[in-house]
Structures are given as structure tokens and as C-alpha cells.
Amino acid sequence: MPITIRSASLLRRLAALQQAVPAVQGAALITADGLVIAAYPPGWDADRHAPEGGEHVAALAAVLAGHAERALARLNQGAFQQIVAAGDRGALAILPVTADASLALLLAPDAALGLVLHAARAAAQDLRLTLDQPA
Length: 135
Known about the structure:
Helix 1 (3-20) runs antiparallel to helix 3. The chain is globular. It contains three helices and five strands, in the order αββαβββα. The chain has a single domain (3-132), classed as Dynein light chain 2a, cytoplasmic (Beta-Lactamase, 2-Layer Sandwich). The N and C termini lie close together (5 Å). A five-stranded antiparallel beta sheet has the order 2-1-5-4-3, with helices on both faces. It is an alpha+beta fold. Helices cover 44% and strands 25% of the residues.
């Protein structure tokens, strides 16, 4: 699949996730190094100085996912499935997509976590299929 078609497909899936679950304020498909592969809404990853922008979310989510993977392995608890860090002004959810990519979501404080995680798992599976298609 050509890279432009793949990129458009990834963005469409992130947009569909946010439309299905309005509590998702931003979604980023990120590498294990914290680089943004795709982000929604458009421009969410553009402002590098915004603490809640896609670039910051990607970097911090990559660090958290890496620590979670190592901790789970060391404690013999199996593969990393998800992280949810909730605060009084919102939450951050991280789900693995491939061995090298994760889905990071910035959530509104009133997000129904069960609904968000259900929709995010389906999105992660779709994103995985898109990423795994040969170029």
C-alpha cells in the first residue's frame, strides 16, 4: 500500500475513533521512540510548546509504555495491554498497536473509560492491519 494511502487510512481511523467517542480529545499513533506516525485532530501535534499537544503526549506515552512493558515482563504478568492514567482534569490511555507502535489517547475528565477502551481496542486492531500491509 503506498504511503500516502496508508497515511490517509490511519488518519481516517483516528478521526472515526474521535467521532465515535467524543471524550477522546486527541489521538496519536506513535512509535516506541515517541515519534508521531499520525495524529487527530489535524494540527494537534503541531504546537510543540502546548503541554497537551500531540508531540508531548507521544513522548510521554512512549516512556510510560516502555516502563509498563518492562515492569510487566519483570513481574511475569504477560504482555502489555493498556495503561490508563487518570487525573482530575482528564486521562491518558495507551494501547499497543504493533511491537513498534502504540495508540495514545488524551481523554476528557468525564470519559466513560469502558466505552473508550472498547473503541480504542477496535481502533488499535484496525491500525495494526493498516500498518502491517506490505508497501
